[in-house]
Amino acid sequence: MRCRMCGFETGNETELCEECAGKASQAKDMSRRKFLGWGAVTVGGLIGVGYLGSALRMLYPTNVGNGSSAPLQNIGPVAAFPVGHYILKTYTGEGFEDGVWVMNQGSNQFIALDFHCTHLQCPVQWFQSLEKFLCPCHGSQYNKLGQHIAGPAPRGLFHHAVAVKNGQVMLGGQTS
Amino acid sequence: MSAPKRQRQSFIDWLDERANIKPLMNEMLYHRVPKIVNPLDFLGLATLFVFINQMLTGMFLAMFYEASAKTAYQSIQYIMDKVPLGWVIRDLHYWGANAMVVLVAAHALRGYYVGAYKKPREITWITGVVLLFITILFAFTGYLLPWDQQSYWATMVGTWMPFYAPFVGIYVAYLARGGTYISGLTLTRFYSIHMLVLPALLLVFFGIHFAMVLKNQMLVVEEAEKKPKGTKGLVTFYPYTVFQMTMLIVIVAIVLLILALSQHAPLLAPADPLNKAHYNPVPLWFFFSIYQLLKYIPPVLDPLGIVGLPAVAVIVLIALPFFDKNPRHEPRRRPWAMSIAGVSVAAILFLTYLGAINQGIPTGGGSGGGGTVAVVQKPSFKTDIEPIFQTHCAVCHSGSNATAGLDLTSYASIQSKGITKGSTYEQTILWQKLTGKLQPQMPLGGTPLPKTTIQTIANWIAEGAPNN
User: Fold this and answer.
1) Domains in chain B, number
2) Using the beta-carbon criterion (under 8 Å), do B299 and A153 form an inter-chain contact?
3) What would the pLDDT profile of B386-414 be if each residue is shown by its tens digit?
4) What range defines the domain where residue B392 resides?
């Protein structure tokens, strides 16, 4: 009978000659070893990814970036905000307190600016006489609308949602 | 006399029979080393000793410390004031933390200088670099725990730095903080990282680091063996080197103790997220170099200074053994390696020094204002004087809540308090406050104004402090 792999006479009734049979069984063995090895690595990797992924999911805060949908907080009657003056108010987020400069622009229009400088998050101060926000750390400056006018900050101050309801000023989360 | 000795001998034999400890003991205790060792080659050991100090003092601090935004500050006060020896333990931990950063850096520099990162010690070097960053993370996470103004605002700034990394920046910042800003959630995760995550990582990398040192032996030992007289000048590690090591540990321990007993770890006012007292954030001292650099580079390059340079430093340090293929170890035979490192280290040290003496409000207003300010002989209030007040004084002295009721943001309010009154400028309150003749010197808690700036103000007062 001719060998199924090399075509030479096998010398008996088997389908493969001795040489080819040896090679075939070795190949089979190798693929089994590879399979077991890669299998172990894959399973181990999947378990690791599972732990790591769950840990990241658990640790990444859920309360960021949804400022517009956060519930509004009452920060006092409109009358407590003289027109044209910034007042520092507290916005209480999930587990943290945040300073927010709130100004009455007149006719129930309010502007609310986060007091963290957009450069490296130092607290900015409002200077009524200068009509500017100044940062004590690297000297960034913002105008009355929170727009960046000088210093290293990459953008203007972050805004907070703010609205007037039934004569009360309602402050919301950080929006943009 | 011989009986107890035989007993001890048999205990080691007993242990060896079961745990095969003799080869390990021979390797660790009886290998041959040079008789006189450069003390700088013991920096790793000094670091290890200080780390053990951190572990021990940390364990006992953890028994009293309460990691929550409401209780953390009070628990530190309790440790400092009420717990017997509590202040010594905290001060040892504080000074140990600073010593760790210094010693790890010095250890790395020594390794670099003698070329100990070259084949076959690449793994020792790489794990060492990882241990350096673990040490910095230890210091950074530990810094927040007292929950005072200093730690709160330094962490606010430090966790915002990743924001400047491309693509993932804001996510990393929020992940580090556990929210939009620093909160009790940040405190608990920093505490867990400080107490559990980093020690586990450190043990893994230190295990590899130490095993590789044992396996490849130290470069000084290898070089001593190569010398013509061979192993003649060598002694066994135990007891000769062990004795020298013990002496070194005694010295390090005494220095730590002196620091701890003479200078308390700082504890400022409790963290105030609204910063009602106008505290000016100050970075940790090993961020001084970046902090100072940011003042010199234009704002558009900020991402480069905040994220780019540190990232390049990490990559260069880790990959160092693979691109420095020069097989020579002697510093004289490595001119490029020596000059590049020398310049980098000198630059970092110089910037750190400048950062240290320039804490507080930057001179010249904003970034890029590092240069010397020229004296103005006939200053105008509008163009010369008002900007000085706005940049250096207005943070506290302005508006209806101005400190001491003194508003320095308009000519009228400056005059109303009479701070420029006096027959000569030396007699005015303004000049005396700026020069420190009248304490406390202004700007409060910041660097004094440059002499040239003060002279400009003096010239203005001498002209009669006009509103021009």
Assistant:
1) 2
2) yes
3) 878 877 787 677 766 667 778 887 888 88
4) 381-462
Q: Are A93 and A64 in contact (CB under 8 A)?
A: no
Judgement on whether residues B86 and B170 belong to the same structural domain of the protein: yes
Chain B residues with CB inside 8 Å of A116's CB?
Answer: 156, 181
- Could you tell me the CATH number of the domain that includes residue A147? 2.102.10.10
| ipTM score of complex | 0.80
Q: Of B354, B376, B380, which is closest to residue B291 (Cα–Cα)?
A: B354
Top residue of B275, B278, B444 to mutate, by most chain A CBs within 10 Å, is B275
Tokens of B232: 């003649």
Q: Bridge partners of A125?
A: A134
Which chain A residues are closer than 8 Å to B189 by Cβ?
A: 59
Per-residue pLDDT tens digits for B271-308: 999 888 878 888 888 888 888 888 788 888 889 989 99
Chain B neighbors of A130, CB-CB under 8 A: 390, 394, 398, 409
- Cβ distance B395 to A134 less than 8 Å, yes or no, reads yes
Domain encompassing residue A16: 1-60
Tell me the pTM.
0.79
Report CA torsion sign: B396, B399, B402, B408.
positive
Asked if A138 lies within 8 A of B180 by C-beta distance, the reply is: no
- For chain A, how many structural domains are there in total? 2
d(CA A98, CA A88) in angstroms, rounded, equals 10
